[in-house]
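[09:14] KT: can someone run the structure on this one? pasting the chain below
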Amino acid sequence: MDTILGVTSLSRMFTYITAFAGAFLAALWLSLIFWTLRDVRNRTQDRLVHYLSTFVVAILNLPGILIYLILRPPKTLEQAYQEALEEEALLASIEDMRQCPGCGGRVEKNWQACANCHTRLRKTCHHCGQLLELPWHLCPYCTTKVPGTHNDVVVEET
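[09:31] RB: done, structure tokens below
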């Protein structure tokens, strides 16, 4: 009788351990599926990729997650967006830095001449006083024709 009780309690304990292990594996499987879906949504906007990667993980479980980790996009959408912003800011700062055509030195936006080599950079409108680029034949601020140019531009005032 002691052996029957021992076998019964051992059988019951094995059932509990098996149930616990099964519940753990099911929870692990579901959590991998949800993690994959959440991760792929952060990395791409393509719905087909969302469904396929989630399907691969749901069907293949741990080998599926390894396949997904190998094939997933390396950057999240947020990281790609931040890098694009940084790149735009860098390009904008490069465009803001002007160089003198004479000596290649750095010049400011509102300088009329280079401080190093005295190369003329801009001219002043005789009517409104705004700075104009050298090739301009017309002041875009007051629409006055720049004197001394060969381009006869007629601007009608309204």
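[09:33] KT: thanks! Residues 120 and 134 are 8 Å apart (CA to CA).
[09:34] RB: yep, looked fine to me
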